[in-house]
Write a structure and sequence with these properties.
Blueprint lengths: L1 H4 L14 E2 L15 E8 L5 E8 L9 E5 L2 E2 L7 E9 L2 E12 L5 E11 L22 E11 L9 E3 L5 E5 L2 E5 L2 H6 L7 E3 L2 H5 L15 E4 L6 E4 L2 E4 L3 H7 L3 E4 L1 H6 L9 E3 L5 E5 L2 E4 L3 H6 L8 E2 L2 H5 L14 E9 L4 E9 L15 E5 L8 H4 L2 H10 L7 E5 L15 H16 L9 E6 L1 H12 L6 E5 L17 H4 L3 H7 L7 E7 L5 H14 L4 E5 L5 H21 L7
Parallel strand pairs: 1-3, 2-9, 10-13, 14-17, 18-21, 24-25, 24-26, 26-27, 27-28, 28-29
Antiparallel strand pairs: 3-7, 4-5, 4-8, 6-7, 8-9, 10-11, 11-12, 14-15, 15-16, 18-19, 19-20, 22-23, 23-25
Length: 589
């Protein structure tokens, strides 16, 4: 469901997931016609189970005999046992009950691997394209054969795997490379940083398929540890490791220093003391400043700050990804963004999101301060970090420095391709945002929990979603921003928009004409002068004018693309900040 619904063009380990997702063929979700061959080259972290979506059919049936899977030339036997029917996921924007052929490989030892998937797709009728956006696999040919090739290297283990396994008796194991190692007790499990939802039950048969190595050492709060002969010493504190900058003080105190395996030490999350240098397996190195990570431009910059590159600490990539990150050192500092996840009752699953917290959010002197929230929704093929790709965090920092933007929390959730609505006969994306996400954010962060202090905005599909959510939930959102809205007519809308009254309840233009709101939300609309969807923004504006609802209207030079949105984030953020002030929300600049 992750790959079909959210991550069709993505790969890797995502917030809330302990499995490495191999990229899926985009035609499985109806995003493009099938190709004869698709090849991916990548590196995969050691110790992670690997998920492969080998085939998917939105018709609900799948003939496994038409698919062959090989690993390093050896054929995977009995692939029909890996076929599952009734998997709900999006295809061309509409929910379908898919049949899928998918496998999870146990964490492989380090080395080079090549997985090939050869499959035939039967032609599908034009009616299978629910949204009218892309042709289904087959493209009118008699049949279509395609090959997926995953060529990857599993690196030698430098940290424990992202997933802890628990056997029926309650014993927990971590993976290191291709082996499992027993975790001796709950204190050790906690210090290794495994959240509860990354500990999964495993049968004796599953565990027997993974060779067992030596047990991990006991870890305790206050313990001093080091990795082999490396001079760095750490104290385990508050479930993390704190680097001892002055090891001579430890020698003088006579405290025992335990030696543990480097991958075990590097799995323990670090305490973010200022002037730490951190690095994962990728090339970027980070400097810790005010409790957040900032990328360093080069080692000359490190030396100029009087920092020693020999004190660079290695951190697991999955841990690094969950630490707060501020702007790189060559840009203006400010707030920090963090990737998180939460469980949505409306969707029945864990969902990732990115949150931007204003500067010094965790500082003791700001402990009681509360902030307004902007919810920003991505477009039709984006994901939760799309707005960051256009620079929203950096623009927020720059505007904060100029006094043109108030201290605000920004939340960027993950959606599918379903227009952020409660679909007719489909998924409750609207309840997921307006109920589950808002409740979670209010309970997790220091928000001002009222409608006037909540803004919702989006681009393209997200603009449609932001407007209909603000209008359908006026008690939740008091401000709405529609940036390049792509508002469907009933004739062009996917089936999950419904018809007649059902469509009207999901259509922003119909909602403006039909609803009586007192007061209506504070509204902004913008569009590019060459945007192919400009007509829908103008239709929304006409409906607002007919109702006499105040709003801001802007036509800027540009098209329906990332260049346009990136250029105008400066305008968007200042609108939200001024709208909060307009409705009486106390702001800090």
């Amino acid at each position: 469901m992750d790959l079909l619904t959210f991550f069709a063009r993505q790969q890797g380990i995502f917030p809330g997931r302990g499995v490495f997702l191999l990229p899926a063929a985009p035609w499985f979700g109806g995003h493009e016609p099938a190709a004869t061959k698709r090849v991916w080259d990548m590196s995969i972290p050691s110790g992670a189970p690997i998920y492969l979506l080998a085939d998917a059919n939105p018709s609900g049936t799948l003939d496994a005999s038409e698919t062959t899977i090989t690993v390093n030339g050896a054929t995977v036997p009995d692939v029909d046992t890996y076929v599952h029917a009734g998997v709900p996921a999006l295809h061309s924007g509409g929910m379908r009950e898919h049949a899928v052929l998918d496998l999870v490989f146990a964490p492989p030892p380090s080395g080079h691997y090549r997985i090939e998937v050869r499959a035939r797709f039967e032609p599908q009728s034009a009616g299978d394209d629910a949204a009218g956006e892309t042709a289904a696999p087959g493209g009118g040919a008699a049949e279509n054969e395609t090959t997926l090739i995953y060529d990857f290297i599993v690196k030698p283990p430098d940290v424990l795997g992202p997933l802890a396994l628990r056997d029926p008796s309650g014993t927990a194991y971590a993976t290191l490379g291709g082996e499992r190692r027993r975790i001796p007790d709950s204190d050790t499990l906690r210090l290794l940083g495994y959240p509860p939802d990354m500990i999964v039950s495993a049968s004796h048969e599953t565990l027997a398929a993974i060779p067992e190595g030596p047990a991990l050492p006991f870890l305790r709060e206050g313990m001093l540890v080091r990795a082999g002969d490396h001079p760095a010493i750490f104290r385990l504190q508050d479930g993390k490791r704190r680097w001892i900058k002055n090891p001579q003080s430890i020698a003088a105190s006579g405290e025992e220093v335990r030696t543990i395996d480097a991958p075990v030490l590097q799995t323990i999350p670090p305490l973010l003391d200022d002037d730490l240098l951190l690095k994962g397996t990728v090339s970027d190195a980070f400097h810790v400043e005010r409790g957040s990570l900032r990328k360093v431009p080069d080692w000359q910059w490190v030396a100029s700050r009087g920092l020693d590159p020999d004190n660079l600490l290695f951190v697991a990539d999955r841990v690094l990804a969950g630490l707060p990150q501020d702007s790189p050192h060559w840009m203006m500092p400010g707030g920090a963004w963090i990737d998180r996840w939460f469980d949505s009752p409306a969707l029945g699953r864990s969902m990732p999101y990115r949150v931007y917290l204003p500067p010094n959010y965790d500082a003791p002197e700001r402990a009681g301060r509360r902030y307004p929230v902007i919810y920003l929704l991505h477009g039709v093929s984006g994901r939760y970090d799309e707005w960051s790709g256009y620079g929203v965090d950096q623009v927020a920092n720059d505007l904060l420095a100029d006094g043109k933007f108030a201290h605000t929390i920004i939340v960027m959730p993950q959606g599918g391709m379903g227009y952020w609505m409660n679909q007719d006969g489909g998924t409750f994306w609207g309840d997921y945002v307006a109920r589950d996400l808002v409740e979670h954010v209010d309970a997790t962060f220091r928000t001002i929990p009222k409608r006037e202090a909540r803004a919702i905005g989006g681009l393209s599909m997200g603009a449609h979603g932001a407007m209909q959510l603000a209008l359908n939930h006026p008690d939740v959102f008091g401000i709405a921003g529609a940036h390049s809205p792509s508002i469907r007519s009933q004739e062009s809308a996917p089936a999950y928009f419904g018809t007649n009254g059902g469509f009207a309840r999901r259509d922003p233009i119909s909602l403006v004409r039909d609803l009586t709101l007192s007061p209506p939300p504070v509204i902004w609309i913008d569009t590019g002068d060459k945007d192919a969807w400009r007509w829908s923004a103008e239709a929304l504006r006409e409906a607002l004018l007919e109702r006499g609802w105040a709003h801001e209207w802007h036509v800027f030079p540009g098209e329906h693309d990332g260049w346009y949105w990136g250029d105008h984030i400066w305008d968007y953020l200042q609108f939200y900040s001024s709208a909060f002030a307009k409705v009486g929300i106390p702001l800090v600049r």
